[in-house]
């Protein structure tokens, strides 16, 4: 359970075997390349930058077409979701099956058909937009009985179709009728602040009519249809109906291609691999005949890597290995833990990946995380729900490894939740009235607080111990004395001095505690600023270091949240139970009670779990990691398949 030891490899091979070599390393799944093109070493100046830009461009064009196919099928025939999708999960195939499907698929035909039909749908969409716009423009004129063709064929009469401001209707009618006697004015409809009008005048009075209309802000409309507005609207509506039917037929036709979706996804994965393999060339150097590669590999796999390369290159290669240097910040980090601890790696990664020179904090935080989370949830019922729900999910669903670890995370947390719940006597709050625990949260608050503080003190001491181990491992034993054991002395002495009386310790123990504290504090003052050459600066820095004891007090107080959140969740659960008991014993209780119970306790479970997750993380990140852990490493990113749509097994 630690950071995996890494080795750097340097490989020279014939350039003619590059494609086969990279495909093999891709299947190997355990190397990460170093970008040689960014190095400026003297022995590399005879090489040129390797590249596959043309191939990458071609593959990206293919990927775009495949993505179009997938997006189109998902749009018109979405994948099944819910429990069925979780149960089935991603399909798993071998590299050989991937190769076979990727090279024999008729995806180009699928793309052509889907593209043609998508174009048809866009044309229909545009046509529907146009027809709807025309219908919308005609609707205000539905009361007009005349045909547009008849109006255009009038010989002795001029017609006007348009709108004027609604507020000017009466004034316009009065002036127009008095000015042009041989006229006909019909108000067809009102739309917002305008009135649509139909006007007929004798040809001889056309100019005068235009003048008056202009005075009233007349806005002319021009329709090119033949029939009346109602007839045109009916015709356009029928056209819309035909387009909708045609659109549905095309959508159904596209849905039929969803049976090829899995094949297209596999082909997309195939070309993603080709893209990644080609893109890897941006890390390499080459000459006329030779390819230079450098990268990282787990030390325990160097023999397997050499066998893999030999299987491709025969004897025509040059390969060297070098153990990673502890202080090298470029060493990629790969964590290896057992199944339980692995579920908690996300907590470490959310904070920061460890450096190669550090320890993996995951196994060091896991026991504390389990205990602290359990104390904050502290309910047997909630613990059972977490265990059962997680177990069902792990058993019934085909999940990816990362999702399995997430489910296992809560599966393991269910056990301390149940155990602490048993100690507190809590089962969905206080639903079982006669259930007694070792402690009563309502009465033994002080005891729970003391236990919380003691657990916090243990974690702080353990964190300091890890720091001492790391310093000794780095051959800095004096630093371990100055930076760790001095604090052990100061803190332990202070605890004996201040807690000796309440704990009933003998005066001798209290006196010893006092002198141990004094020795520890003196050591902190004298060594806390030892990096300074000036004595005054050294003492000043030492005194400032001693002020850090207030930080330990704050850290210790932070662990009181173990008590606070545990009690809060229990009291909230009990409050929901009290609400149910107040319903009496009638039918209302048996109808409403279960609803309150389920909704209330689900709410409390989720709220308590969120609070426990956040606050337990906070205790690890601030109080615990602050004592020994820095982080800042780079995660190992192996050269392998992305597995976006499917899972590819190498063997």
Automatic annotation (TrEMBL):
It is a multi-pass membrane protein. InterPro entries: V-ATPase_116kDa_su (IPR002490). It is found in: Membrane. The chain crosses the membrane at residues 368-394, 406-425, 445-464, 485-503, 509-528, 535-553, 559-583, 590-614. Residues 233-263 form a coiled coil. It holds the Pfam family V_ATPase_I. Its main location: membrane. Keywords: Coiled coil, Ion transport, Membrane, Transmembrane, Transmembrane helix, Transport. Belongs to the V-ATPase 116 kDa subunit family. This is V/A-type H+-transporting ATPase subunit I. It comes from Hathewaya limosa.
């Amino acid at each position: 359970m630690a950071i995996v030891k890494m080795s750097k490899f340097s490989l020279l091979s014939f350039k003619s075997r590059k494609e086969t070599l990279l495909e093999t390393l891709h299947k190997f799944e355990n190397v990460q390349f170093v970008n040689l093109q960014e190095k400026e070493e003297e022995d590399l100046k005879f090489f040129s930058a390797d590249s596959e830009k043309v191939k990458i461009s071609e593959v990206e064009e293919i990927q775009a077409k495949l993505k179009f196919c997938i997006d189109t099928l998902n749009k018109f025939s979405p994948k099944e979701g819910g429990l069925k999708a979780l149960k089935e999960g991603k399909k798993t195939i071998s590299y050989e099956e991937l190769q076979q499907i990727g090279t024999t698929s008729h995806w180009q035909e699928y793309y052509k058909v889907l593209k043609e039909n998508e174009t048809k749908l866009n044309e229909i969409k545009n046509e529907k937009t146009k027809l709807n716009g025309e219908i919308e423009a005609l609707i205000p004129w539905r009361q007009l009985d005349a045909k547009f063709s008849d109006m255009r064929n009038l010989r002795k009469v001029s017609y006007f179709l348009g709108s004027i401001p609604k507020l000017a209707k009466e004034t316009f009618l009065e002036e127009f009728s008095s000015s042009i006697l041989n006229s006909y004015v019909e108000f067809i409809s009102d739309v917002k602040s305008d009135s649509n009008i139909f006007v007929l005048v004798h040809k001889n009075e056309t100019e005068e009519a235009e003048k008056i209309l202009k005075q009233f802000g007349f806005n002319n409309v021009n329709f090119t249809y033949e029939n009346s507005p109602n007839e045109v609207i009916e015709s356009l509506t029928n056209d819309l109906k035909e387009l909708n039917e045609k659109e549905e037929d095309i959508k159904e036709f596209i849905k039929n291609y969803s049976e090829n979706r899995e094949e297209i996804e596999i082909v997309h994965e195939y070309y993603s691999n080709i893209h990644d393999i080609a893109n890897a060339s941006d890390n390499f150097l080459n000459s006329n005949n030779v390819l230079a590669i450098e990268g990282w590999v787990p030390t325990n796999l160097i023999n397997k890597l050499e066998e893999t390369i030999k299987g491709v290159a025969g004897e025509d290669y040059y390969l060297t290995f070098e153990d990673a240097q502890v202080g090298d910040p470029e060493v990629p980090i790969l964590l290896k833990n057992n199944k339980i601890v692995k579920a908690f790696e996300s907590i470490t990664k959310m904070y920061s990946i460890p450096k190669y020179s550090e320890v993996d904090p995951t196994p060091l935080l896991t026991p504390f995380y389990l205990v602290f989370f359990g104390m904050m949830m502290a309910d047997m019922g909630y613990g059972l729900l977490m265990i059962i729900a997680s177990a069902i999910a792990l058993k019934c669903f085909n999940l990816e490894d990362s999702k399995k670890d997430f489910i296992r995370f809560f599966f393991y947390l269910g056990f301390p939740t149940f155990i602490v719940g048993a100690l507190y006597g809590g089962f969905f709050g206080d639903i079982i009235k006669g259930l007694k625990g070792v402690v009563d949260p309502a009465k033994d608050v002080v005891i729970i607080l003391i236990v919380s503080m003691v657990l916090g003190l243990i974690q702080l001491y353990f964190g300091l111990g890890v720091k001492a181990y790391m310093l000794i491992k780095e051959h800095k034993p004096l630093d371990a004395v100055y930076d760790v054991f001095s604090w052990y002395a100061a803190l332990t002495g202070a605890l004996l001095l201040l807690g000796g009386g309440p704990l009933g310790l003998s005066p001798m123990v209290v006196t010893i505690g006092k002198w141990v504290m004094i020795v520890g504090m003196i050591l902190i003052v004298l060594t806390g600023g030892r990096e300074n050459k000036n004595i005054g600066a050294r003492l000043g820095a030492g005194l400032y270091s001693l002020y850090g004891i207030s930080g330990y007090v704050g850290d210790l107080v932070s662990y009181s949240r173990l008590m606070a959140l545990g009690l809060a969740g229990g009291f909230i659960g009990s409050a929901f139970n009290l609400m149910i008991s107040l319903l009496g014993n009638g039918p209302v209780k048996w109808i409403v009670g279960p609803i309150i119970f389920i909704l209330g306790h689900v709410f409390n479970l989720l709220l308590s779990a969120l609070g426990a997750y956040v606050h337990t993380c906070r205790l690890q990140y601030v109080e615990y990691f602050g004592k020994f852990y820095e982080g800042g490493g780079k995660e190992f990113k192996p050269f392998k398949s992305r597995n976006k749509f499917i899972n590819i097994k190498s063997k």
